[in-house]
Write a structure and sequence with these properties.
Oligomer: single chain
CATH topology: Serine Threonine Protein Phosphatase 5, Tetratricopeptide repeat
Helix content: 55-70%
Strand content: 5-15%
Structural class: mainly alpha
CATH class: Mainly Alpha
CATH superfamily: Tetratricopeptide repeat domain
Radius of gyration: 28 Å
Number of helices: 8
Length: 190
């Protein structure tokens, strides 16, 4: 059995040996022009809006919120940043936060039809059928009827108000389906 003091001395000798080995040539050497820590990367950072869109496509909504927040530092809270934040929150089911952000986005000039569509989908989810119809009609008009997703969402909103049986609890199995970087469609679950 080894005495505790001998074990301590043996460990100290081993550490000293390792430290001296690391100091010999052939170990880690710094370049002559670099004395301390490595330099900062010289490339340009990718725009937070692009990163946020890619993260949304990958289903990484929390990370997308972080990217859109960073984009807000560069661009300010413009339509794209607000719409991205709102869409990410909508995808996470945070309807209150998403509604506030999407309303702020559509209040700014130049809001895309997809932003209006997302606000309409959110309002349908909340059961605010009348306002959802108005918002989706605006999205459809801004899009000139070109988007199938917006047209389908408007049809669902109109059908929901015309057919009260459509609101029966058993028939409200819907799922938000993402189409594109910030476009959502309501689909019935079979």
């Amino acid at each position: 059995m080894t005495h505790p003091r001998c074990a301590t001395m043996l460990a100290a000798a081993l550490l000293t040996s390792l430290a001296l080995t690391a100091c010999t040539t052939g170990g880690f050497e710094l370049p002559e022009d670099q004395v301390y820590a490595p330099g900062v990367a010289q490339g340009e950072a990718v725009d937070g809006l692009i990163v946020g869109g890619r993260l949304m496509d990958a289903g990484q909504y929390e990370l997308a919120i972080d990217a859109y927040t960073r984009a807000g530092l560069d661009h300010g809270l413009n339509v794209d940043v607000l719409a991205g934040l709102g869409s990410a929150n909508l995808a996470l089911g945070r309807l209150g936060q998403a509604e506030e952000l999407l309303r702020r986005a559509v209040a700014k000039p130049g809001a895309a039809p997809e932003v209006w569509n997302n606000l309409g989908v959110l309002l349908l989810e909340k059961g605010e059928i009348g306002e959802a119809q108005l918002v989706l009609r605006k999205a459809y008009a801004l899009d000139n009827g070109a988007s199938d997703a917006i047209r389908d969402n408007l049809r669902k909103a109109l059908a929901k108000s015309e057919n009260p049986v459509y609101d029966a609890p058993l028939e409200q199995n819907y799922k938000l389906v993402r189409r594109g970087s910030s476009d959502y469609l309501i689909r019935a679950i079979p």
